[in-house]
Design a protein that fits this description.
CATH superfamily of the largest domain in chain A: Aconitase, domain 3
Strand content of chain B: 15-25%
Largest sheet of chain A: 5 strands, parallel
Shape of chain B: globular
Strand order of the largest sheet of chain B: 4-3-2-1-5-6-7
Number of helices of chain B: 6
Largest sheet of chain B: 7 strands, mixed
Strand content of chain A: 15-25%
Structural class of chain A: alpha/beta
Shape of chain A: globular
CATH architecture of the largest domain in chain B: Alpha-Beta Barrel
Radius of gyration of chain B: 16 Å
Structural class of chain B: alpha/beta
Order of helices and strands of chain B: EHHEHEHEEEEHH
Distance between the termini of chain A: 53 Å
Oligomer: heterodimer
CATH class of the largest domain in chain A: Alpha Beta
Chain lengths: ~425, ~170
């Protein structure tokens, strides 16, 4: 039977000849990731063992990753105590993939996993974070789960009752015009599918535009696939996947590159001509409220945020630094930059980007998730308007239900930082 | 099953940021999360905290309830009040979290009810006693229903773990 990429991956993972949409499988887990919510996972994990004669013991300490990123350094004594408890658990259980609040190994989980070579094609990867879909960019079947589900994974080493999802095939051909990026492409896809259009499904990306897209861009596509409701986003692995894993993530050893069957059945096929795309903006208060930039140009912006697991990578920071070099952020607008990891922060520092940004008036903050979800720095005031390269614009998202968040690419963020209003980067020299 | 009033009627795409705003995420324990349920809807949050919502009440929502974050607090905070959520459909992670922590939720693709209406759940239907209409409930797959029947994922996993280790509870 012809299978999609994920169907093939799942069949391989549970040692079957084939699987079909709707089959319910128990899957072995290759990597289980948590961040600060490990504190809740630990609580639920201990609950599983309560009343039994067994000591709580994780199934494989080398397959669990814990990364502090949501509130770093701790913003409150409550968080600091959660961090402390989690450190104790990590030590007690011997969890090896632990990334503490440190300038050498720290960062946002969805950057730490790829850049450290933890993600491989063909993996079953679960994370207690909805943007775990990011790792489909390297050919993993990666999806978000809740804390109790993760506790069960830690105990059993497998994830129970996963329904084989149907798949939406997104085929992108043509060259992205100057000033238009992977972020614009995925916003366009979300606007097309709607916030629930891919619920319980996988989005599989194909086409020459995807083939030519570096992994940094593929991470953006898969990261935001969840904003259309998708269980996972995936780019079937290719030469670029291997290049990234070998050259940027230091992965050695054999890699298995599965491919979708050419005659696989898809629930829906969406074809996109990249050459026709312009910059896209997701307007308040849903991510699928996507408009071409012409519809919102000139909107006054109080705060611009560049960063997050979506667009805080070196190429994103480079775009903003190059645009701002020798110029100034507009009066009345604040520009906050949060690199996605300390490795990126250091690379941006060595390349001179951080100096460009700071001299232009940007505030460069430490890597973390904080402002994206309004939990640590960068909160908005009443009636303020933010423009962000992050991934969600829900009411209250940046810490204030009385504020508005617009989502965009780093290029739009940079052009808008100079003018203080939403600006088309194609119109800026 | 239960009978109760609709205490909150919501639109489509209600995100986990609306159900449990991110700024309260450092609070994780199911015993502590209910105080922040719908925190940005000050009137409803106050009603909840003052004990003004009887157990067995209903929240009725449209499509894609619980979209966004994987935060389990969004499910545990509602469960703390013994409220049942009836929605046309749910976002994937929220649905799974609800099953895992034992939040009562009902997938009811055609539900039509207003705040104040009394609902009754029986015979695989939601009955709106105010309008006299009834709406079919979409059953969960058997594998998911089994977790609910076990009382949530923790007891379900405990049993499975012990079985696989060849031990009795």
């Amino acid at each position: 039977m012809a299978m999609t990429y994920v169907q093939k991956l799942l069949a391989r993972a549970c040692d079957k000849d084939s699987v079909a949409t709707g089959d319910i499988l128990e899957l072995p887990v290759h990597l289980a990731m948590s961040h600060e919510n490990a504190a809740l996972v630990i609580n639920q994990f201990n609950e599983i063992y309560r009343g039994t004669s067994r000591e709580p013991s994780v199934w494989d300490p080398d397959r669990i990753a814990i990364i502090f990123d949501h509130r770093v350094p701790a913003e409150s004594s409550k968080t600091a105590t959660n961090h402390k408890k989690t450190r104790g658990f990590v030590q007690q259980q011997g969890i090896s993939k632990f990334h503490d609040v440190r300038g050498d190994v720290g960062g946002i989980c969805h950057q730490i996993l790829p850049e450290n070579g933890y993600v491989r094609p063909g993996q079953i990867l679960v994370g207690t974070d909805s943007h775990t879909t990011t790792h489909g960019a390297l050919g993993a079947f990666a999806f978000g789960i809740g804390a109790t589900e993760m506790a069960a994974v830690w105990a059993l080493g497998s994830i129970l009752n996963v329904e084989v999802p149907g798949t939406i095939k997104v085929v992108v051909n043509g060259q992205l015009p100057d000033g238009v990026y992977a972020k614009d492409l995925i916003l366009h896809v979300i606007g097309t599918l709607s916030a629930e259009g891919a619920n319980f499904k996988v989005i599989e990306f194909h086409g020459e535009t995807i083939s030519n897209l570096p992994t940094s861009g593929r991470l953006v596509l898969c990261n935001m696939s969840v904003e259309a409701g998708a269980t996972a986003g995936v780019v079937p692995p290719d030469e670029e996947t291997v290049r990234y894993l070998r050259d940027e993530a230091g992965v050695e050893g054999e890699l298995e590159l599965l491919a979708a069957d050419t005659d696989a059945e898809y629930d829906r096929v969406v074809e996109i001509d990249a050459a026709q795309l312009g910059p896209q903006i997701a307007c308040p208060h849903t991510v699928d409220n996507v408009k071409p930039i012409d519809g919102v140009k000139g909107k006054k912006i109080n705060q611009i945020v560049v960063g997050s697991c979506t667009n805080g990578r070196l190429d994103d920071i480079e775009i903003v630094a190059r645009t701002l070099r020798g110029k100034q952020v507009a009066e009345g607008t604040r520009l906050l930059v949060f690199p996605a990891s300390w490795r990126i922060y250091t690379d941006a520092m060595d390349a001179g980007y951080l100096g460009d940004l700071i001299k232009a008036g940007a505030v460069v903050c430490n890597p973390g998730c904080g402002p994206c979800l309004g939990i640590h720095q960068g909160a908005l005031g009443d009636d303020e308007v933010a423009l962000a390269t992050t991934n969600r614009n829900f009411k209250g998202r940046m810490g204030n239900p009385g504020a508005e968040v617009f989502l965009c690419s780093p290029a739009v963020a940079a052009a808008s930082a100079l003018s203080g209003v939403i600006t088309d980067p194609r119109e800026v020299n | 099953m239960s009978k109760g009033k609709v205490v909150l009627k919501l639109a489509n795409d209600i995100s986990t940021d609306i159900i449990y705003p991110g700024r309260f995420m450092a609070t994780v324990l199911p015993t502590e999360t209910p105080q922040f349920a719908f925190a940005d809807d000050k009137a409803f949050n106050q009603l909840l905290n003052e004990g003004g919502v009887p157990a067995g009440s209903f929240i009725v929502a449209g499509d894609n309830f619980g979209c966004g974050s994987s935060r389990e607090q969004a499910a545990s905070c509602i469960k703390g009040y013994d409220i049942t959520v009836v929605a046309r459909n749910f976002a994937r992670i929220f649905l799974q979290n609800s099953i895992n922590v034992g939040l009562q939720m009902i997938i009811c693709p055609d539900i039509n009810a207003a705040e104040g209406d009394e609902l009754e759940v029986r015979e695989n239907k939601v009955w709106n006693l105010a309008s006299g209409e009834s709406f079919d409930i979409q059953p969960l797959p058997a594998a998911r229903q089994a977790i609910i029947d076990a009382g949530g994922l923790i007891p379900y996993t405990r049993k499975l773990m012990l079985e696989r280790a060849g031990q009795a509870l």
